[in-house]
Amino acid sequence: MCRLYGMSAAPHRVRATFWLLEAPDSLLAQSRHDPDGTGIGYYDADGTPRIDKRPIAAFADRAFAREARELHSETFVAHIREATTGALRAANTHPFEQQGRLLAHNGVIEDLPKLEARLGSHMSLVAGDTDSERFFALITLEIERHGGDVAAGIAAAASWAAQELVVFALNVILITRDELWALRYPENQGLYVLERGPLDARLEHSSAARTIHVRSDDLAGRGAVIIASEPMDDDPGWRAFHSGELLHVDRKLAVSSTTVIDHPPRRPLTLAELDARDAAPLAR
């Protein structure tokens, strides 16, 4: 499946180089298993949202490495794609932007005609073929219905999808210029959080044989909250989200979380069913 990464260091603008390129399980390393697209979302100093994405693997993309070293933002969202819905093209590569917000998704959602009917005029926000971008449009619709409350919008969209659609996973990371939200639902795909305080040691890692040594001084003396599909280094502070947990990191780096869905999907899609579909072309 796809891999998600998000980080907030608000109110400071920082680089995400360590996690994108240098950590023992960086997104660059993960892309060798998920080669169908690479994207990074971030914000300019004036708050303009930016997305750099291409439908190729990060390890094969020189621009990914360059951008990972150069980009500065208070918040980041990045994605390594293993395609399930939609062709390999830029329009289907994560993250996506809607109304100044950026989102990446890891999972599978089916019964897209029903989702599109729910979206109505909000289908105009969708440029590609993916279930992910359509789910983002549903979140945008629900945020509007809830008076601009992002958390309420995510919760409402996920709850409707869990009740009405065929769902494997709805793991998402959504960012604005200085805030971050992350949802894990249900338990099929992992999502983890690491909260680093400003007094924590600089990011540093040595391999068991001490043949690999990487570090990042960019976050020295600054706190940060990192979200990822799996722990990206051996820091013992990584914590797994529980199913249905929605986490929010505010513009002062305060973290809060709540359970927004406490039941399994009404129409679940299993990993065995997905694996059988992937194997079917080989059997023919």
Summarize the structure.
With 284 residues, the chain is an alpha+beta fold. It is 25% helix and 29% strand.
Topology summary:
Elements: E1 3-8, H1 17-22, H2 27-30, E2 37-43, E3 49-54, H3 62-70, E4 75-81, E5 96-98, E6 101-106, E7 109-110, H4 112-119, H5 131-145, H6 150-164, E8 166-167, E9 171-175, E10 180-184, E11 192-196, E12 203-206, E13 213-216, E14 224-228, E15 239-240, E16 245-249, E17 255-259, E18 267-268, H7 271-283
Parallel strand pairs: 8-18
Antiparallel strand pairs: 1-4, 1-14, 2-3, 2-4, 5-6, 6-9, 7-8, 9-10, 10-16, 11-14, 11-15, 12-13, 16-17
Q: Could you explain how this protein is built, in words?
A:
The protein is α+β, with helices and mostly antiparallel strands. It has one domain (3-283): Glutamine Phosphoribosylpyrophosphate, subunit 1, domain 1. It contains 7 helices and 18 strands. The strands form 4 sheets. The protein has a 7-stranded antiparallel sheet, covered by helices on one side. Strands 5-6-9-10-16-17 form a 6-stranded antiparallel sheet, covered by helices on one side. A hairpin with a 5-residue loop joins strand 2 and strand 3 (49-54). Helix 4 packs parallel to helix 5 (131-145). The radius of gyration is 18 Å and the shape is globular. Mean pLDDT is 79; it is low at 21-35, 55-61, 64-69, 83-88, 204-216 and 279-284.
Largest sheet descriptor: 7 strands, antiparallel
Per CATH, the class reads Alpha Beta
Q: Provide the helix percentage.
A: 10-25%
How far the N terminus sits from the C terminus, by CA atoms, comes to: 23 Å
Topology as a string of helices (H) and strands (E): EHHEEHEEEEHHHEEEEEEEEEEEH
Structural class, please? alpha+beta
CATH topology: Glutamine Phosphoribosylpyrophosphate, subunit 1, domain 1
